[in-house]
Amino acid sequence: MLIRIRWLLAAVGLVLAVVAAVATGKAWPGAIAEVPPPAPGSFDKALVGRGEGLAHLGNCSTCHTADGGQPLAGGKALKTPFGTIFATNITPDPKTGIGRWSREAFFRSMREGLSRDGHHLYPAFPYDHFTHLTDSDLDALYAFLMTRPPVVAQAPENELIWPLQYRAAVAAWNLLYLQQGPMGSADRGQYLAEGLSHCGSCHTPRNKLGAEIVDRRYGGAWTQGWYAPPLNVHSPAARPWTPEDLFVYLRSGFSANHAAAAGPMSEVTRELAEAPEEDVRALAAYFAQQMSAAPAAKEAASLPDRSGPAGQAHPEGAVLFAGACANCHEAGAGMMLQGRPPLSWGTPLHEETPHNTLHVIVEGLHPAPGIAGPTMPAFGNDFTDAQLTEIAAYLRARYTDLPPWQDIPKAVADVRKGSIR
Ligand code: HEC
Ligand code: HEC
Ligand code: HEC
């Protein structure tokens, strides 16, 4: 009930803001005229190459490529608390893509969240971050996109809750939350984090209207049912994140001093693997700085691994672990002898909720086809909900000093039904 009232208030606020936006003439901006599709050969090769690196830093293809679909041709469903939004075709197909978009139309979409014909784009497209890009970076991205193979593909219709199917509502959102314009930062890491790489779009908590709460930047947030942990002084990491650890993790999806990147983060690291190395180093240095005052400075040696007492408190969990997990995760197992981190070094067991831990157990870890990476079988079909609860409680007790998780069965249900929270 409380939640309904909040929604109602939010809707009323939005309607008022729409009125304000209409009054200031921002709700229905005009179209930018179509242009003849620019010839791919008209773009400078070096510029296209730089654009490709930037596209990896901005994860363009993660959102704009449907599962099994053509690169950048759109159609991927993004689930948000407001409904499902489909990323569009950004290949240069003249009819269904952006083939007839001028440089100006592209710049406006990235900076103001407006499509070429003037309709508002939903902020599931992180233009609230891309708005910070410099002209030179936008030019390179434009050159890259306009030289991709054109693909004919139309994204399905969005499925959104009232009143958000009315795109004009976004004008109000922009009025309230969009801080437009390129960001003047001398720090390359900060520029990338806040602009192109939009790390806060997952790691910064959002308010009821889905806008990032700026004074809790990188404070940890829910994304697609996963928890993107804090990357600031509140980092729950068990061990300190050095610039080198972060660089290796962001680039390879694995840190021998922490754990593997799973879920939505593994998609980010797959893209960063192909981004310019110095840019990934700049991101790593920036976030190491953000987390430098976090309480993680514990020595590895003091992190617990007390199978005895934890086993007594959770006998069923201990038995399941011995049967299904120990041959990889127990000290002395073949995998551990190859320098893999003990479970106590990973952040998931130290987070406030068991969701990420449960996701990994239920879904396993599967590197992208053709790419080497940490692999763990999925156990979702092997365990009952009660067994998953036992295992999670056992892991938390055995590998951390933290209080037991509350309400594991609820988290198991969330993970089972793919709830995005
Ligand atoms: C987090 C997901 C996400 C990422 C990352 C993302 N986009 Fe998008 N983008 C979307 C969605 C969703 C839409 C459609 C929004 C709508 O229809 O309201 C969109 C729309 C667009 C549009 C407008 C297309 C049109 O037909 O109106 C452009 C241009 C665009 N994206 C370019 C990019 C570029 C360039 C990158 C990488 C730098 C990128 N996007 C990264 C989700 C994303
Ligand atoms: C699409 C959502 C998303 C985006 C974008 C994203 N992250 Fe993450 N990130 C996550 C999730 C979810 C996790 C938890 C994954 C896990 O438990 O393996 C995570 C985990 C991490 C971790 C591990 C933290 C720890 O203590 O274990 C780091 C570091 C990190 N992200 C950095 C970044 C940086 C830097 C960026 C921007 C370049 C970024 N993330 C962008 C979703 C995202
Ligand atoms: C075939 C080997 C294998 C088995 C069996 C296995 N895992 Fe894993 N698990 C991995 C790998 C590989 C990783 C990624 C981290 C790494 O590379 O060390 C991982 C990561 C995890 C993580 C993520 C957090 C972290 O610190 O990396 C959790 C939690 C986890 N495993 C729990 C379990 C549980 C519980 C079981 C038994 C139900 C299990 N695993 C069985 C190989 C395995």
Automatic annotation (TrEMBL):
UniProt binding sites for heme c 1: 60, 63-64
Keywords: Cell membrane, Heme, Iron, Membrane, Metal-binding, Repeat, Signal
Residues annotated as transmembrane: none
Residues binding heme c 2: 199, 202-203
Transmembrane helix in keyword set: no
Cellular component aspect of the GO annotation: plasma membrane
Source superkingdom: Bacteria
Domain Cytochrome c: residue ranges: 46-149, 184-291, 312-399
Cofactor, free-text remark: Binds 3 heme c groups covalently per subunit.
InterPro entries the UniProt entry points to: Cyt_c-like_dom, Cyt_c-like_dom_sf, Cytochrome_c-type_DH, Membr-bd_ADH_cyt_c
Pfam families cross-referenced by the UniProt entry: Cytochrom_C (PF00034), Cytochrome_CBB3 (PF13442)
Record: residues binding heme c 3: 325, 328-329
PROSITE patterns in the record: CYTC
Protein's cellular compartments: Cell membrane
Cofactor needs: heme c
GO terms assigned for molecular function: electron transfer activity; heme binding; iron ion binding; oxidoreductase activity, acting on CH-OH group of donors
Listed SUPFAM superfamilies: Cytochrome c (SSF46626)
PANTHER family: ALCOHOL DEHYDROGENASE CYTOCHROME C SUBUNIT (PTHR35008:SF8), BLL4482 PROTEIN-RELATED (PTHR35008)
Name of protein: Cytochrome c, mono-and diheme variants
Organism: Enhydrobacter aerosaccus
